Amino acid sequence: MNRMRQIRLAMSSLMALSVLVCALAMSHAQDSPGILLTEDEFERQAVTELDGCRVSLERRKKEAHLLHFRHDCRQPLEEKLALLKKLLETLVPDLDDRKALRTLFVGRLAVTFPELAQRVALAASQHQDWDYKRAWKESGYSNRFFLQLISEQGIFPELQDMLATLGFEVQVASVEKILMAKPKNIPFGPWLLEHGADPITKLPFDALTWFHLESMPENSLITPSEK
Question: How far apart are CA 149 and CA 118, in angstroms?
């Protein structure tokens, strides 16, 4: 009888410990949402949620060179880039497989990376060659100008630094469907006005944006401690 009692006590203790471990795990999961990896015949996704807002990084099997980052949740740029890094590491864990990546599509810049879109609009407001009337009349002018600004004005150093830790150099590949408006009609218009933008000049503030990824030699990889 004593032996059976000892067994029952041991089992009760194990069950209590198991419940405690599960509770701690659930609490940690609520504080730090995990990343779910899904896959079907068409694509592979790394998905997470921020306060009920879905974030994903997608890779289609027929376009294995391309990643599509979807993130329209409220989150500071630094945290957003840290999350993108975790998603990429989860989605493409194999270093050799990563070398096949060539393109990062982020959708609309003002939605995915509003801080970067702010910088483009402000750079346009300060550029003597920006001509919004010409942009309305001349096909392709706004695309070329937006691409020039985002490529030459130091718009995305944080993205460059983050991707460098994963072995990539990054440049802007292309932009499409430029949006223009006066500051009062731009989501971050008050910020532009505070930084000296002309209230009556229409500015380019958003575009569908593709970044080109180029794998760096392995001996040139940047680690956080080297930055």
Answer: 12
